[in-house]
Design goal:
The chain contains 5 helices and 7 strands. It is an alpha/beta fold. It has one domain: HUPs (Rossmann fold). Helix 3 packs parallel to helix 5. The chain is globular and about 50 Å long. It holds the Pfam family Usp.
Length: 142
Amino acid sequence: MTGPIIVGVDGSPTAHKAAETAKELAAKLGAPLHVVSAHTEDKIAHTNSGSDQWEVSSADNALYIAEQVVKKLRTPGQKFVPASAHGKPAEALISYADKVGAHMIVVGNQRMRGVTRVLGSVANSVSHNATCDVYIANTYGD
C-alpha cells in the first residue's frame, strides 16, 4: 500500500456516507484517511465582537467541515487528516491527491443518475481524470 486514501466531503449526508466507506477501506488497507473539503473562493470575512476582530476565510470554513467529519469518524488506532483544498470539488480532490501521492480517491455516487448524470458529477469527473485509483461509494438508500 502506498499513499493515503482521500475522501471528499461537503457536510452533506451523502458525503458522510462516502466518508464512512472510505474509513472502512482505509482501515482494511492500513492507510491514513485524508478527509478533504473543497473551497472555490479565497474570501476572507471580517467579524467584530466587542473590541476583537476575527478573520474567517473560505479555506477555514472548508477545513472546519473536514474536521467535523473526522470527529464523527474517529476510531482509535486509525489515522485521519482533515484538509481543505482550493478549486471546484473534482479538481480540488485530484490536485490534493496528486500533492500527497494518494493511493485512492473515494467519492459518492450522488448525481450520477438521471439528467444530472449527463451534465456531469464530481464522481464522473474524478473517475475520468484522477491519476490514482478511484472508488465510487454507493450513497443512495441505506
